[in-house]
Amino acid sequence: MIRAKDTLIHRLNRQPLPPQDREALVKPYLPPPSPASSPDRLQKSRRRKRPIRTFLNNQLHIFIYTFIHLLFSLYIRIRQACHAVVDRIFAVLYYHHRTPELIEKDVKGLGRLPEHISVVLHLEDEAGGGAGLDGLVDEVAEVAAWCASAGIGMLSIYERTGVLKSHIHTTHRTISAKLHAYFGRPRPSFELLVPHLPPPISSSSPTLQILLLSAEDGRDSLVDLTKTLAEMAQRGKVAASDISVELVDAEVSESVMGEPDLLVLFGPVVKLEGYPPWQVRLTEIFHMQDNTGVEYQVFLKALHRFAKAQMRLGR
């Protein structure tokens, strides 16, 4: 702090002090200069900088980064090649030749089969080289024929956009033709169902039930059910204590579907894409690494995996 005597002298003069006097007035109260801020110290620190060493360090880091990426890319390529060879061998050994007896023989030795199997399919863009709607409907028909041949009575097919629901007649006609190609006459009867729509009137129980699902049957259905239960509780139609997991499970099973025993993903990664979350609490999920197509060997391996799975149900 500046002494009171110096401040009083400055006020009595009522004239601004020159810079030299101001510096002299404040200098006794300043701390001693740091040795690190001296000009000699700054010049020495500048001389110690070595741009060549910095450049070499940067190049070393880039080399290590590139080397790791090359190793990982090589591993991915080798893994994909091995899986492609193994899948091709299995496709040749276990090709069904559109013969239900061969499919029945493939699953005959399994300890159990799922009563309800669900699959996730994708609509490929025709502009990007995909098969489009025709390819998607043909995949639905193929999976339906495999299920009918294996003796599985319930098949649910999830496609995120819901385009199958808009082409029910085309899907029904394609499945009929595919079953006729597999079984001839008579072919198994089937029923094509859509959530929130009345089922078709049938005189006899179908051999196979096929349920078409989309993203609107997932979280949106849960949100609508939650709103409905909340409104009923506010109006006194249902007590809050009566809303339980069993009630929600019963409502979801009635409006959409029950829990499938097995969910088969034909993609290379586990990606549900908005699949109904409530129905997969106890579902066995199967996928094959690096697989990109709807192939029979993937379907067969999923059944083998399900037969060996242990359903502990939280125990």
Output the strand order for the largest sheet.
Answer: 3-4-2-1-5-6
Helicity range: 40-55%
Count of DSSP E strands?
A: 6
Alpha plus pi helix count: 10
**Rg value:** 36 Å
Structural class comes to: alpha/beta
Mean pLDDT: 83
The sequence of SSEs as H and E is: HHHHHEHEHEEHHEEH
Largest pleated sheet? 6 strands, parallel
What share of residues are in beta strands? 5-15%
Low-confidence stretches: none
Cα separation of the termini: 76 Å
- State the shape: extended
Structure description:
With 315 residues, the protein is of the alpha/beta class. The protein has ten helices and six strands; from the N terminus they run αααααβαβαββααββα. It has helices at residues 4-13, 19-26, 39-48, 51-93, 100-108, 132-150, 168-183, 219-234, 245-255, 296-308, and strands at residues 116-121, 154-159, 190-193, 208-213, 262-265, 284-287. A six-stranded parallel beta sheet has the order 3-4-2-1-5-6, covered by helices on one side. Helix 5 (100-108) packs across helix 6 and helix 6 (132-150) crosses helix 7 (168-183). The model has no long low-confidence stretch (mean pLDDT 83).
What's the quick description here?
With 315 residues, the protein is α/β, with parallel strands linked by helices. 49% of the residues lie in helices and 10% in strands.
Any descriptors?
315 residues; alpha/beta; 6 strands; 49% helix; 10% strand
Question: How is the topology of this model organized?
Answer:
Blueprint: H1 4-13, H2 19-26, H3 39-48, H4 51-93, H5 100-108, E1 116-121, H6 132-150, E2 154-159, H7 168-183, E3 190-193, E4 208-213, H8 219-234, H9 245-255, E5 262-265, E6 284-287, H10 296-308
Parallel strand pairs: 1-2, 1-5, 2-4, 3-4, 5-6
Helix pairs in contact: 5-6, 6-7
